[in-house]
Write a structure and sequence with these properties.
The complex is a heterodimer of chains A (about 220) and B (about 100). With about 220 residues, chain A is of the alpha/beta class. Chain A is about 30% helix and about 25% strand. Chain A has one domain: 3-Layer(aba) Sandwich (Rossmann fold), CATH 3.40.50. Chain A contains seven helices and eleven strands. In chain A, the strands form two sheets. In chain A, strands 7-8-9-4-10-11 form a six-stranded mixed sheet, with helices on both faces. In chain A, strands 1, 2, 3, 5 and 6 form a five-stranded antiparallel sheet that branches. The longest helix of chain A has 14 residues. Chain B is elongated and about 50 Å long. With about 100 residues, chain B is mainly alpha-helical. Classes of the chains: A alpha/beta (about 220), B mainly alpha (about 100).
């Protein structure tokens, strides 16, 4: 039986001034699954992703890979990639070159517009197109886990659907953590859903109903 | 790793070279024996200019780092690598320049 990697985060405490942002966190990201984290604006979702990635240092944290503590997961080659909310790639870099940096052959991506786009610079693309390509780049990276912070923002519905398909395909190769406010799209693809509320995470057993009950989405 | 450091260094190489070459010119473009007494000062100036770049990038352009962090490089690794590369380029060019002048 193939051993599945697991990334876990707990005992996280993050404070800004007197305000506790995160305090009672437990998150388990299994390989081969899509894990969703939903929560209101300013709830600490992006901070949580950065803490797991290793670029934000909280007061306390425990991030474990297969039960083993990892201080800075991003420094462990082939472990994790992170898509931030803002543009990721240098604007002057060509699309094909950016994919190459991340170990991806742009000709083998299977995106029909790639032959036209691969020689263009990232900064020349429209915001949505750049976002789509950067998300694709992270998703196809040869790593065990990817953390996606609002991958659907600024994307047209056709791109969102394409990304959902790619996420479903890629989950056979890696664990995917996603957070986005387009909750319907997130719930469509999520195998497990956490709600981040008042600095704590809860694993939801019946996400659609519990999200209503807890006031995250309207009835 | 060198290619990632080079890519990162390209973001501010014009600034660091402008500062160092500017200081060298202001000091009267010393060469030969005079240059070596000025080298220590240039080193500290370079270190100071890197401190300024670090603070400015950390404050205003922190998102730049994520491209490299996804490749496994920390901010410290990038800056130490870029500083080493910059020193090598600047003092290498100065030495070549100094030798060329002494030959003619």
């Amino acid at each position: 039986m193939e051993h599945l990697a697991v990334l876990e985060a707990d005992s996280i405490e993050l404070t800004f001034g007197n305000q506790k942002i995160l305090q009672n966190i437990y998150l388990k990201i299994p390989g081969n699954q899509v894990t969703a984290v939903l929560g209101r604006n300013g709830g600490g979702k992006s901070c949580l992703l950065q803490i797991i990635f290793g670029t934000l240092t909280p007061t306390y944290k425990s991030v474990r890979w297969n039960g083993q503590y990892v201080e800075s997961p991003y420094r462990k080659r082939g472990l994790v990639c992170y898509l931030p909310q803002h543009p990721l790639t240098p604007a002057s870099m060509r699309v094909g070159e950016a994919f190459e940096w991340y170990g991806i052959d742009s000709d083998a991506v299977g995106y029909e517009k790639m032959p036209l786009l691969k020689d263009q610079r990232m900064g020349q693309l429209s915001g949505g197109e750049r976002r789509f390509l950067e998300t694709l780049m992270i998703l196809l990276s040869p790593v065990q886990f990817v953390l996606l912070d609002e991958p659907f923002s600024h994307l047209s519905p056709i791109y969102v659907e394409q990304l959902k398909t790619i996420i479903q395909e890629q989950k056979s190769k890696k664990g995917i953590l996603i957070t986005d406010h387009l909750y319907r799209d997130v719930l469509d693809i999520a195998d497990q859903t956490y709600l981040l509320q008042n600095g704590a995470t809860d694993l939801l057993s019946n996400p659609r109903q519990e999200l209503i009950d807890r006031g995250y989405i309207p009835e | 790793m060198l290619s990632a450091v080079w890519l990162f260094y390209r973001n501010f190489r014009v600034f660091t070279h402008a500062v160092a070459w500017g200081a060298w010119l202001i000091a009267g473009a010393p060469l030969g024996e005079e240059l070596w007494s000025f080298v220590v000062l240039l080193f500290w100036l370079k270190l100071f200019s890197y401190g300024v770049i670090w603070v400015l990038m950390y404050t205003f352009l922190r998102q730049i780092y994520l491209f490299y962090q996804n490749l496994g490089y920390s901010i410290t690794t990038l800056f130490v690598g870029a500083f080493g590369l910059d020193m090598l380029l600047f003092f290498g060019l100065l030495t070549i320049f100094s030798w060329s002048i002494s030959l003619f």
